[in-house]
Amino acid sequence: KDRGELRIHESLDELRTDLADYIAEISDASVKERGVFTIALSGGSLIGLMGKLCEAPYKKTVDWDKWHIFWADERVVAKSHADSNYKLAKDGLLSKVPIVPNHIHSINDSASAEKAAKDYEFVIRQLVRTRVISVSEINDCPKFDLIILGMGPDGHVASLFPNHSALNENDEWVTFITDSPKPPPERITFTMPVINSASNVAVVVTGIGKSEAVHLGIDNLLQNLKMLSFLNPSGCGGSVAIYLVLFC
Ligand code: 6PG
């Protein structure tokens, strides 16, 4: 299987079409193979970039009722709050396509960050047990069909920030932080082992503000550092696509 594919686009429109094709292809393959498609989303500009999925032909051709939606990271705020990644996805994508409501696995938004992380891991464990989410043969981690991430200008993905101790969490599947350098401070996030175990990971990066972090990320990749170690082709996961649009 190909890993570490870099797709560079000259315009956001090109990226949007390619991203919709990429997601639709993985969805088709997963539904064919297992009857479901498990996708973990993040926040930021990503949902807007996935917008073509709500249009023809995808709106009709994608097996929406087979989709199970998760969040690779979430801010611990009410689901109705403007900062909620759930709200962003709901308003921008999920309300426009026929997803089964109880296939939308959002976090417990009325608990502390610690409890919300524990509860979310419990939800994932139940779905691993019932084989909605498949499991990695290597480390028993959940194996999502696709984890789709943005990247901050500081190089963070999900809510794993550079030099933060959450990067070293290897036992839990979902962890929490209360000191996010980017507000809001309380968040839950998938851990590195879970990101590493996905069948496919896409990191969607746009804007000149990201260029330094992209270069660092590619250096880290070459040096096999931890920060973006899921880009390491010898890792235990599946394929990785990085979408890149830099404006010069
Ligand atoms: C958050 C955001 C964040 C975002 C990146 C990239 O929770 O603070 O979700 O992690 O994904 O900062 O954001 P952009 O794609 O909007 O630059």
Strand/helix succession: EHEHHEEHHEEEEEHEHE
Number of domains: 1
Q: Give every kind of bound small molecule, once each.
A: 6-phosphogluconic acid
Q: Give the strand content.
A: 15-25%
CATH architecture: 3-Layer(aba) Sandwich
What is the spatial order of strands in the main beta sheet? Answer: 1-11-10-7-2-3
What is the name of the CATH topology?
A: Rossmann fold
Mean pLDDT: 88
The number of strands is 11
CATH class: Alpha Beta
Instruction: Compute the number of helices.
Output: 7
The helical percent reads 25-40%
Q: Spans of 5+ residues with little confidence (pLDDT < 50)?
A: 223-237
What is the straight-line distance between the termini? Answer: 33 Å
Over all CA atoms, what is the radius of gyration? 17 Å
Key structural traits:
single chain; 248 residues; alpha/beta; three-stranded antiparallel sheet; 7 helices; binds 6-phosphogluconic acid
Walk me through this protein's architecture.
With 248 residues, the chain is an alpha/beta fold. The chain has one domain: Rossmann fold (3-Layer(aba) Sandwich). The chain has 7 helices and 11 strands. The chain has helices spanning 12-34, 46-49, 58-61, 85-92, 113-129, 192-197, 211-223; strands at residues 5-8, 37-41, 67-71, 73-75, 134-135, 142-143, 146-150, 174-177, 187-190, 200-206, 239-245. The strands form 3 sheets. Strands 1-11-10-7-2-3 form a 6-stranded parallel beta sheet. The longest helix is centred in the first third of the chain and has 23 residues, at 12-34. Bound molecules: 6-phosphogluconic acid. 6-phosphogluconic acid is lined by residues 42-46, 73, 75, 85, 150-152, 156, 182.
